[in-house]
Design brief:
Keywords: Acyltransferase, Transferase
Order of helices and strands: HHEEHEHEHEHEEH
Structural class: alpha/beta
Protein name: Lysophospholipid acyltransferase family protein
Strand order of the largest sheet: 1-7-6-2-5-3-4
Strand content: 15-25%
InterPro entries: Plipid/glycerol_acylTrfase
GO molecular function: acyltransferase activity
CATH architecture: 3-Layer(aba) Sandwich
Mean pLDDT: 89
Length: about 240
């Protein structure tokens, strides 16, 4: 559903407006009802998420439901970075109303980054999929946007594992069958320890490596714990 900008640009000097929390909370109210009705979703680790202060949720990206599931099952109102193509018509209006941020994928989207940093600096929560697109979800590589947001927003990083949201052979654009068992596990918060002696690209590269390792390990461990395997393919035929 969302993607991290590949080459982040500096945030704008004039801070964008932060969406009201009651509007962002609609994600939780509506999402939990819908996922409870149509799927067997087990959510683990919500108690690990800090109750206040800036939090950046980073998730592996397997299927089309990952995007709406993260803010729906998060213990805190969470704004997601969502691909700009979805912000059209009634859907686009609704996504903006409930606090999501349109982002142009694979680019240093200045306005999207500024909006996300503003939410984090106001003590809010933002969600992003640092792999940049749906696939196996094994976090073999990530883009730099997520680490940049964590550093600029002063946020702790909470890894989120999505398991069962797509099966082997299914396209990344397809919905799981009704009643499918899925697991969403929130990990422990971690503050990226990019050395203060580093500057610019070196610091960002170090933080990005830490974030990738954190998320990949969390996803792998969660898969073993819950006995839910990641898909064996990247579902490229249905990628969007």
């Amino acid at each position: 559903m969302s993607a991290a900008p590949a080459n982040p640009a500096p945030a704008a000097s004039a801070g964008p407006a932060v969406p009201p929390q009651w509007r962002v909370r609609i994600n939780i109210v509506v999402g939990r009802v819908l996922f409870g009705l149509f799927y067997r979703v087990t959510t683990v680790g919500r108690d690990r998420v800090p109750k206040d202060g800036p939090v950046l949720f980073v998730g592996n990206h397997v299927g089309v439901l990952d995007g709406p599931m993260l803010p729906a099952l998060s213990p805190r109102p969470t704004s997601m970075l969502v691909k700009r193509e979805l912000f059209t018509g009634l859907l686009g209006w609704f996504l903006a109303f409930i606090g999501h941020i349109p982002v142009t994928r694979n680019s240093g989207d200045r306005s999207a980054l500024s909006a996300a940093v503003a939410i984090l600096r106001a003590g809010g929560a933002v969600g992003i999929f640092p792999e940049g697109t749906r696939g196996r979800g094994d976090v073999s590589a990530v883009q730099q946007g997520a680490a940049w947001l964590a550093l600029q927003g002063g946020a702790v990083v909470v890894p989120v594992a999505f398991l069962g949201t797509r099966s082997t052979g299914a396209s990344t654009g397809s919905l799981p069958r009704l009643g499918t068992r899925m697991v969403v596990e929130f990990g422990h918060p971690v503050r990226l320890a990019a050395g203060t002696d580093l500057t610019g690209r070196a610091r960002l590269a170090t933080a990005t490596g830490q974030l990738r390792e954190l998320l990949a390990t969390h996803v792998s461990d969660a898969s073993v714990r819950h006995q839910v395997a990641l898909p064996e393919d990247d579902g490229v035929a249905g990628r969007s």
